[in-house]
Amino acid sequence: MTKKTMRRGAVGAISVALLGGALAMTPAQADEPTFAVTTSDSSVAVGDEVTVTVAAENVQDVFAYELALDFDPAVLAYEADSASTDVTGSTYASVQGDLVVLHTKLGTSPAAEGDVSLVSATFTARKAGTAALAVPSLKLVGTDGEARTVEVEGASVAVDRIAAPTAVTAPKISGSAQVGKVLAVSPGTWSVKGVSTRVQWLRNGKAIAGATRSTYRLTAADYKASISARVTATKADHADGTAVARAIRVTTKAVSRTGAKVPGSVKAKAAFKARVSVKASGISPQGTIRVYVGGRLVKKNVEVKDGSATVWLRVAKKGRSAVRFVYVPQSGVEGSSRLVKLRVR
């Protein structure tokens, strides 16, 4: 048996020669002949090889045949010159979108009978997906010069992604575990070269919305929580690999600073406005303000919104008066206060 790649002109010439041959199935066979596409594996990974066979069972008097094997070239790549058969004679194969196979016995060689492999070919999986394998046309020629076209049962092969990369060195979080501070996570190192990585920060094991950069600024919601980061490694044709950095517990509150602006002097019993500001590194403080005049509470539960509040006050007694603004913080932020003195006339 010989194998060689043929051009389109040669394919046409062989087709004519095949029609000049003959096919005859012996009558009253115990079993009808069957034809099917089979694969060496039903599932392979990208980069693996798979053998595809067009098998025939219970055939009689097959002197020559012609078939075209359809496959998805985006998923499977035919390995050149890999087509072969266990039927003696000459085999010719070409790839023209399909794998076209022509085979003929030589001279007075006996026709093929029984169970035979009409063609076996090697393919390499090139992309994840499912590749359908079909033979839309199988023409058999016998020794009596008659030709017959038969149906062939198709098959498919599933191509899976290559196994996921694994972390050789785990991702690691660095930075201060204090509300308002910035944490960073290293990507780690991976068993597969050339991976791309993406990050998802986690609070108590659950994803933090929008926290997908390599750095993360701790918020008041993170106080007393465990913060970690999940790193996902991706590469074409591979399953995704993941690794989670060791969590840190946020135990330190953000430090706040309270400021206040009031007039230098005010009229006794006249209303005046005080502007209060609260700052904390890395966050926008929320909470409330309490106001004490001469040590007596005169205002409480004044809302601090985005670090600022406005308070209207009156002082009855003339002279120098001390006004203290006390910030009552949200969780995760330390309280603070500011004392100011004003003249009441």
As residue ranges, the low-confidence spans are 1-29
Find the count of extended strands (DSSP E, 2+ residues): 30
Helix content: under 10%
Enumerate how many helices there are, as a single number. Answer: 1
Shape: rod-shaped
What is the terminal-to-terminal distance? 118 Å
Strand residues, percent? over 45%
Described by strand count, sense and barrel closure, the largest sheet is: 8 strands, mixed
The value of Rg in angstroms is: 41 Å
Structural class: mainly beta
Features:
345 residues; 4% helix; disordered N terminus
Brief write-up:
The chain has 345 residues and is mainly beta. It contains 1 helix and 30 strands.
Question: Would you give an account of this structure?
Answer:
This protein has 345 residues and is mainly beta. It has 1 helix and 30 strands. It has one helix spanning 8-20; strands at 3-5, 34-39, 43-45, 49-62, 64-70, 76-78, 90-95, 99-104, 112-125, 129-141, 147-150, 155-160, 167-169, 173-174, 182-185, 189-190, 196-203, 206-207, 215-217, 226-234, 241-244, 248-249, 256-261, 265-266, 272-280, 287-293, 296-304, 308-313, 319-329, 336-344. The strands form 7 sheets. Strands 1, 3, 5, 7, 8, 10, 11 and 12 form an 8-stranded mixed sheet that branches. Strands 17, 18, 20, 21 and 22 form a 5-stranded antiparallel sheet that branches. It has a 5-stranded mixed sheet with strand order 24-30-29-26-27, with no helix packed on it. It is rod-shaped and about 130 Å long. The termini are far apart. The model is unreliable at 1-29 (pLDDT under 50).
